[in-house]
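Q: I have 332 residues here and want to know how they pack in 3D. Can you give me a structure?
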Amino acid sequence: MAGATRDPFHIQHSFRGTGNKKALLIGINYAGTDSELSGCINDALNLKDFIVQNYGYNPSPETMLMLTDDNPNPQFQPTYKNLVSAFAWLVSNTKPGDELFLSYSGHGGQIEDNDGDRESGLDNTLCPMDYEEAGQMRSDDVHKYLVAALPEGVKLTAIMDCCHSGTMMELPYTYRPDANGKMSPVDMVKKGMAIAMGAQRLLQGGFSMEKVSEAKRLFAEAQGLAAALKGDESGNESGGYKQETFNENTGGPKQVFCLSGCKDEQTSADASFNGKANGALTYAILKSLNENRQLSFEELLLQLRGFMQGEYSQIPQLSCGIAVDPKSPFSF
């Protein structure tokens, strides 16, 4: 229609790949430190095998780079300096239609926001293996190295399996189907059943502070469900998306899609599954896609959240450089 304006929340996701792919996988266990983790290197190794076997990635040094803190070669250890260099390698020498994959498993943190674009007053951070000496990497810089530097028309899919990771890449859109009345009827029923079961548990046994905390959580979830049932469209959200207000300029829409382990204020679990250490997000992603690689963005996110429910408090997030149709197919 002549003169019609395009709704930025409904940009269609149309991507034609060239077949050229590059991947960067990072796993940091912080071995021998007070911050030691167990499953992060396993995450990187498992994801490497998965994308090679199922998504056409080539493990050659020209197209795949792995940084882990158990590597005896300092060039391939995830120090702050090496992370910056690896990010530059990932986005360089690419052209429209190329596909990139990034995974980070390690510690995430928060430090004081230095540019005033976060209501919490805190920037999210990545923690390189030498963060105590070199410092943490701010989400502003993660955006600068990976999003702002990404050539237009190149696709980047990222997994951030760390604490405080919800908006780690400071992308303009966060998909929040349970925040503005855009939940599917099936999801509403599942949420209602979970709340009812939780309430039933609270009625059993005696009083405890733990039950008070659980009651508060259930009340918050019930409020969210009530808003969904009413079709509440508060704030600046549309189509399930919240438009973020970060200062960073990406230089135009970017095909960047990030699955993160939790909301900004939450932590992500380093856990054990079938006797092997893994990050909960990475394990859930691999479990879901091994069962069905035809999932949409929305279906994958719902499966990840369903996996966490009842076991882990973290709520996986999807953030995007464009407001992708949530029913379009997810792919690395």
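Q: Anything worth noting?
A: The longest strand covers residues 21-27. DSSP finds eight helices and 14 strands in the chain.
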